[in-house]
Design a protein that fits this description.
Helix content is 31%, strand content 23%. By secondary structure, the protein is α/β, with parallel strands linked by helices.
Length: 375
């Protein structure tokens, strides 16, 4: 799914704003920059989209510091905020959603519309006072089912006809704030113990043979190790762990060049990940803040298998040198399959790189030095 247009009324500091994400041939833009200085309303645009479309997907990520209250979300002097989004679905996405519902035996499979264009209207507070997160209305009326395919598929990974590969045709809504938080998964006890107890894990073979009950963690190191270990295991035709890890390594090397992920390394206290750069080989603890930001973003795409989705990234340039900003911007279209990426920036370097091809400018940026990509 991809966002075609949005209209925002009385949301935070925005009185009225209409944005069109299509070109002159009505093709939806896959990479959508929103440029402007601090406090100019860039993040409010992403929040409006997230609050309008996020809840209807059932798989919702929102920045952790967003406060859900009328005082925070409704423009002062107004009684209600409204956001209207026009969303486009391809025929293949509609077919994939119907397949997911059929596999699940969902009673509403026959109600899924074959509408390529859907309108979602969100009002906050709910005028009916029934929904704490606001009221969503759809056109056509049953179009909310088109947003549920990914959630239905995730719930039925255990069935023979459903697999992680199915998610390439089923999208969601993903919002990455300035902290890039929200990363988390369950990992096996041996890997979990690597950080918690510094146990005597003997290596990759033991980690694969003795997975044990899984525990939830938000430790990026452990999640990266888990993905790398699973990538080493034999892969079935529907598995994606190996290609997910290989793509992560490729993108990390592309953005952070000349640094790269070397691979798993068995230390005295357990598994760790080796990296390599101009100064030699180093472990996860040696990563810079810029590398950690890039890695966190790439891990989200790899572990959540983000494809055919609307992805929003607040301040793309965080902790990155202009050279790395350029590379990350150039990589946005390859982070997943068929995604639409909307990002905000107040980087004058990115502004000059985009050269006016941004969808919306919320204010003037001052001049700043830029760097040429010599890679």
């Amino acid at each position: 799914m991809k966002l075609e247009k949005i209209q925002i009324d009385n949301f935070r500091g925005i009185k009225h704003l209409e944005l069109d994400f299509q070109d002159e041939l009505e093709r939806v833009q896959d990479v959508v920059p929103i440029v402007g200085p601090n406090t100019s309303g860039k993040t409010s645009i992403l929040d409006a989209i997230s609050l309008c479309l996020g809840p209807v997907t059932g798989i919702w990520t929102v920045r952790p510091d967003l406060v859900m209250s009328p005082a925070s979300l409704v423009r002062r002097g107004s009684g209600q905020a409204r956001v209207t989004c026009s969303v486009r679905f391809s025929d293949d996405e509609i077919a994939a959603t119907k397949e997911a519902f059929e596999v699940a035996g969902h009673p509403d499979v026959d109600k899924i519309p074959s509408a390529n264009r859907v309108t979602v209207r969100w009002e906050y507070p709910d005028p009916r006072d029934e929904h704490k997160r606001g009221l969503n209305q759809f056109e056509p009326a049953s179009a909310d089912l088109l947003f549920k395919g990914r959630k239905i598929a995730v719930r039925h990974f255990h069935t023979p006809s459903t697999s992680p590969r199915s998610l390439r045709r089923l999208g969601g809504m993903f919002m990455f704030g300035q902290t890039r938080t929200g990363l988390g998964q369950r990992v096996s006890h041996p890997l979990r113990a690597r950080a918690a107890r510094q146990n005597e894990l003997s290596g990759l073979e033991e980690a694969e043979e003795h997975r044990g009950p899984a525990e939830y963690t938000q430790d990026a190191r452990l999640i990266l190790l888990s993905l790398a270990v699973r990538a080493q295991a034999p892969q079935g035709p529907k598995a994606t762990e190996r290609e997910d890890f290989e793509r992560l390594c490729e993108l990390f090397a592309m953005v952070c060049k000349p640094h790269r992920i070397k691979g798993l390394y068995n230390t005295e206290t357990g598994l760790d990940m080796e990296f390599e750069g101009p100064q030699g080989v180093y472990l996860f603890d040696g990563l810079s803040s810029g590398q950690l930001m890039v890695l966190a973003l790439l891990l989200h795409f790899a572990r959540n298998r983000i494809h055919s989705s609307i992805v929003m990234i607040d301040e793309l340039e965080l902790h990155l040198h202009p050279l790395w900003q350029t590379r990350l911007h150039q990589s946005l279209g390859t982070l997943g399959y068929n995604n639409q990426v909307l990002f905000t920036t107040h980087s004058t370097h990115l502004r000059d790189l985009i050269r006016g091809n941004f969808v919306h400018c919320t204010g003037e940026l001052g001049d700043d030095s830029t760097a040429k990509d010599e890679a």
